[in-house]
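Protocol step 4 of 5: obtain the predicted structure for the target chain.
Materials: sequence only (see below). No template structures provided, no constraints applied. The aim of this step is simply to have a reference model before the mutagenesis design in step 5. Sequence pasted as it appears in the construct record:
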Amino acid sequence: MTIGTPPSDPTRFVIEREAGRGGAGVVYRAFDPVTERWVALKVIAAEAGLARTDEERLYREGELLGELDHPASSEPWPTECSS
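Step 4 output (structure tokens):
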């Protein structure tokens, strides 16, 4: 996958548009038909060359977001990795 290319599994997420991008990947506004919710889908490009410590940091970010309980924040969903 290159930066700017959405995930290839159209059955899980329906990509509406790109919401933002950075050095390691792209965030998409997408609909998840499984949960019936709009989501921010963060896709890290394989070309980003993440080290194991980077992967651990991203998983920790997801865990910390999962602990937030505030009306202005969205509810995060489980993190998953696919190659």
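Step 4 remarks: The beta strands are 14-21, 25-32, 37-44. The mean pLDDT is 74.
Proceed to step 5.
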